[in-house]
Amino acid sequence: MKIALGADHGAFELKEAVIRHLEEKGIEFEDFGCYSKESVDYPKYAFLAANAVAKGQCDFGIICCTTGLGVSMAANKVKGVRAAVCTNEMLAEMTRRHNNANVICMGQNVVSEELAMKMIDIFLSTEFEGGRHQRRVDLLTDIENGIELTV
Ligand code: RB5
Question: Most exposed of 46, 62, 76, 92 (fewest Cβ within 10 Å)?
């Protein structure tokens, strides 16, 4: 398993903590930046990490900013990416089980480091349930492809 990491300056410290956590667990990763607390524009880093997932270079993404919101918006604009902002363990589990999320987004000012690592462990170890959820995930792809859904 290989993880794509991305963050802006607002979550540089959280990304550093994620790196330590992944290293401790022996999980391979690629760090797409940023590499300091100097102010940067979050869409660029979210794009680089999300694009690595979309292209199949990485299996999952962990992308962070101050809130988790901006990077999730950017990541979700990359075709093939299903990014979810998670703020508790249940969300980290459910977005894998039901949405087949391939990117977890978190906010450094929203979650503690301890909670962030717990969510990462859950996110990376929870399987997609498939079945009726596959149909719904396929509909997300339809939207992405410009298909106008009807009920
Ligand atoms: C940066 O100041 C902040 O806007 C960014 O980290 C993120 O929270 C945006 O959604």
Answer: 76
